[in-house]
Amino acid sequence: MKVDLLLGLQWGDEGKGKIVDVLTKNYDIIARFQGGPNAGHTLEFDGIKHVLHTIPSGIFHQNSINLIGNGVVIDPVIFQKEIEKLEPFDIDFSKSLCISRKAHIILPTHRLLDAASELSKGKSKIGSTLKGIGPTYMDKTGRNGIRIGDIELPDWMEKYRKLANKHESMIKNYNVDLQYNLKELEEDFFSAVKKLKSIPFIDSENFIFNQLDDEKTILAEGAQGSLLDIDFGTYPYVTSSNTTAAGACTGLGVPPNKIKDVFGIFKAYTTRVGSGPFPTELFDKNAETMSRVGNEFGATTGRPRRCGWLDLVALKYAVKVNGVTKLMMMKGDVLSGFKKIKVCTSYEYDGNIIDHFPFSVDTKKIKPIYSEFPGWDEDISKLKEEKAFPKTFMNYVSFLEKELNVPIAIISVGPDRTQTIIR
Ligand code: GDP
Ligand code: IMO
Ligand code: MG
Fold first, then answer.
1. Residue whose CA is closest, atom 16 of ligand 2?
2. Spacing, Cα 144 to ligand 2 middle (Å)
3. Separation of CA 37 and ligand 3 centre (Å)
4. Which residues lie at CB < 5 A from ion ligand 3?
5. Which of 239, 265, 281 most suits a substitution to test ligand 2, by most atoms within 8 Å of the C-beta?
6. Would the CB of 8 count as within 6 Å of ligand 2?
7. Is ligand 2 within 6 A of the CB of residue 37?
8. Which residues are near ligand 1 (CB < 6 Å)?
9. Cα 240 to Cα 340: distance, rounded to the nearest angstrom
10. Nearest C-alpha to atom 20 of ligand 1 is from which residue?
11. How far is the CA of 18 from the centre of ligand 1 (A)?
């Protein structure tokens, strides 16, 4: 009987989807607990690449149940497309997927509000994925939201219309040039809601209590990353949910004392998509190489990801906030061929040396201080055993383990399921 968590420690896109897929065989239930279709989780196996947005990354394994928890926000239109893309793969969704009645629904007008808000911000926009995430969570905490369970109730259409009308007047108030045809958007929305209803809606917290009583094991799959957390991230350039460990308790109804391992996943360097501070960001050839070799383009929006060296100040902070018990290092293969590898170990901040992640991550005031490591030339993407790794690569791994004081339990050397070394 246990719940383990798997969380991104940076600004998202660490490779969560890949590792959840690798670990699913050890669990009975895979559960998403926050975020929504702003997430893009990539899985690769048998020469096929899959990108999941709302559906948990255990969906390709028979015998595991995939739960979309109460903390998630769901866009029926995106969900329908996701299901349709998976249709060739013979998945019995009625058995392997279920949705919490308490999860909130993203309405077409939430997406419009997201766009209007971003347009009104001009240069200081968040760089949101425009999936309506912020406005949907605002309605949730403002106690105006509509939940999955509401679809089954007789006053659902009234609820919908009331909220959509309110949103339309809010959009007008933004006074921005946003063209839209709500009738068309609603046609797609209501047809997608029909599809959504083919998936079982459940009282998910109850389901989880029963599963735990029956000694079943649960892996909670985080979305986004710790530095995008609404409380602990680089606010206001964050998402609108708690992406850190505590989010799994509120987003699933899992009590804290049922959590065992917290797997923290990070790239061997750093990326960020969207706006906001990024102290170790590079604008040179190294960034170009990371972007090209690492194929650093957003899985949801296709936007190029900003790239830079690993930031240990930020990573240590994320390890602490989440209580990480095991680390997983991804994309070390992308650094093959770099003559030197740098890691930021502290910041010079306003003339002082600091080693904590400050309240204001103001990149005008922060100068990262780096340690340098010799690189490795070998292609490590086909290696199957730790002992085959170049010495300089293992030195890098050992340095990080020592600094973070947590073992690196998995080393990933490529996007495919098989390119995974479990230590
Ligand atoms: P997630 O949002 O955390 O699930 O990560 P994404 O799927 O958005 O981004 C990770 C990207 O890196 C995907 O394109 C993966 O296929 C790819 N990837 C994952 N692990 C590795 C790795 O070890 N090496 C390389 N080269 N690519 C990887
Ligand atoms: P996964 O789960 C990377 C970023 C957006 C933007 C900010 C707010 O694939 O790691 P939002 O749409 O949430 O209002 O956008 O957060 N963002 C992500 N960046 N990976 C993600 O998810 C992200 N989800 C949101 O780019 O900067
Ligand atoms: Mg992603």
1. 239
2. 24
3. 10
4. 13, 40, 299
5. 239
6. yes
7. no
8. 8, 12-18, 40-42, 44, 294-295, 299, 330-331, 333-334, 412-415
9. 37
10. 415
11. 7
Q: How many CB atoms lie within 10 A of CB 176?
A: 15
Closest residue CA from atom 12 of ligand 1: 15
182-196 and 76-86 are packed helices; what angle lies between their axes, rounded to 10 degrees? 50
For every one of its 423 residues, what pLDDT tens digit does the chain have, with 9 covering 90 and above? 699 999 999 999 999 999 999 999 999 999 999 999 999 999 999 999 999 999 999 999 998 999 999 999 999 999 999 999 999 999 999 999 999 999 999 999 999 999 999 999 999 999 999 999 999 999 999 999 999 999 999 999 999 999 999 999 999 999 999 999 999 999 999 999 999 999 999 999 999 999 999 999 999 999 999 999 999 999 999 999 999 999 999 999 999 999 999 999 999 999 999 999 999 999 999 999 999 999 999 988 999 999 999 999 999 999 999 999 999 999 999 999 999 999 999 999 999 999 999 999 999 999 999 999 999 999 999 999 999 999 999 999 999 999 999 999 999 999 999 999 999
Cβ-based neighbour number of residue 246 at 10 Å = 18
Ligand 2 pocket check for 38: Cβ under 6 Å: yes
Strands 340-349 and 270-272: unpaired
- Provide the residue type at 408 as one letter: I
**Ligand lying closest to the C-alpha of residue 42:** 1
* Residue type for position 379: D
Active-site residue numbers?
13, 41
- 8 Å CB contact between 50 and 267: no
The model carries a pTM of 0.97
Place of tokens 């308490």: 102
CA distances from 313 to 214, 265, 320, 354 (A): 41, 15, 11, 9
CA of 230 to the centre of ligand 2 (A): 12
What number does the ligand 2 atom closest to the CA of 40 have?
9
